[in-house]
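EI: anyone free to look at a 119-residue chain?
SC: sure, send it
EI:
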Amino acid sequence: MKVYQYKNCDSCKKALKYLDAKDVSYESLPIVDQPPTLTELKAMLGYLKAAGGSVKNLFNSSGVQYREMGMSQKLKDGMSESDALKILSENGKLIKRPFVLTKNNGVVGFKPEKLDQIL
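SC: here you go
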């Protein structure tokens, strides 16, 4: 299991504490310095789509860079998935976190019940 996280993110801290309490083994990766690869982002998008989500669910829509880059409007204007994934792979601050990826599933954000489903 890989957990991409940001050290100052409260949701990330809660997720790591939750996983530790459940004695789950994971690799913690700094999402800003080492964002998920395009392959990992595509895998996560597949998991999100299977649950009724879309590429928009990969974005940290409350982040400063999201607003500064006008990502909301770009997504509304029909930015392609491939363009969105490329931008995400180059800028970890745009990615919703924590970004938890297993061999067969993944979740973004901290919701204990969602984490339980992939453990």
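EI: The first strand starts at residue 2 and ends at 5.
SC: 👍
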